[in-house]
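User: Hey, my collaborator sent me this sequence without any context and asked if I could get a structure. I don't really work with proteins. Can you help?
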Amino acid sequence: RYADGLVVAAPTQRDDAVRPLSPNDLYFPVPYRAEPLVGILVQAKGYENGVGLATRPRLATRSQNLVRSAEYYLVYGLFGGAMIAILAYNMMLWRALRYRFIMTYCLLGSTMLFFGISWSGLIFLLIPGLTINGQVALNFLGYALIIATVPVFLFSFVEAKSIPARLKTVTLIVGQIAVVASLVRLAGFDAIWRLLDALTYGGIFAAL
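Assistant: No problem. I've predicted the 3D structure and written it out in structure-token form, which is a compact way to encode the shape of the chain:
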């Protein structure tokens, strides 16, 4: 909204406003006019959950956005490099020692790497045409996979008799429920997304 009262829509569509490695940020170019910009109006349609949308809209120059993007690149580059190095090292370690807990640790690291790829927005480069809702569903899946894999690693690392068998069974089952619910949500069952999200959250918290 400009000082003269004119409201102009940004020319960029919502899914085109996503930038890889800039999670949770949507970038809309501002149409140039002689009048100064005095307000940002946000209308969100098609989101499954409207909580927290556009809580901090701000106006920034192109150079400021580039700096912000560079900060994201640095953080996710360090995270990705560290995870890949740890996975490579432990894969070689497993090849030499053949301990089961090392392989489950690699599995856990792989789920964390998958979640990082999805959350960071890098997934948009790997899956062209992916929507924002699709990314959210992948985030749920990644988080559920992490929560389901942590007890698998834990149970393979500690002595079998130190953890009750019933606790193991329940923890593994609720973790699997969260993963299955996330997979069903990813498959496009949008009509029951609230139920699927509740199952995912429930499975995650129960596993914790």
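In plain terms: The first helix runs from residue 62 to 97. You can pass these tokens on to your collaborator as they are.
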